[in-house]
Write a structure and sequence with these properties.
With 149 residues, this protein is an alpha+beta fold. It has a single domain, classed as START domain (Alpha-D-Glucose-1,6-Bisphosphate, Chain A, domain 4, 2-Layer Sandwich), CATH 3.30.530. Helix content is 28%, strand content 44%. The model has no long low-confidence stretch (mean pLDDT 91).
Amino acid sequence: MTLSLVVRRRIRASRARLFEAWISPAQLLKWWGPKGVRCSHAEVEQRVGGKLRIGNELPDGSTVWILGEFLEFAPPQRLVYTWRIESTASGPARDERVTVRFELISDAETEVIVIHERIADEATRAGHASGWDGCLARLDELGLSLEKP
């Protein structure tokens, strides 16, 4: 049995701007990661089959690498990609799956819904829930500035 979670947040920005923030390395560097974590590196191949590689620099200075591959790439409404933490001494990790939906509320407001599936255990699920809450909070803080040309 595997676990899943759903995290959602209304953000004052258009779907197109939020979608772009999710797939643009320059934008990811500004908001990705919960409080205390800095996005130190972002590579995104913007297409189905494209790779995703994000470096999360932790407060202790170590970096956790998130690797993935896009399974769906449907601007501006939906992204689906695999999610794997780079292999560690404990062995290779299994692929989880992340779906991000950008639901139109109005021209200037979007509900971002993150569905994270295939999670191995409750401790990992709790960590992901906290991480996604923090990421969406930072994206929300950036949201208004995304609307400026």
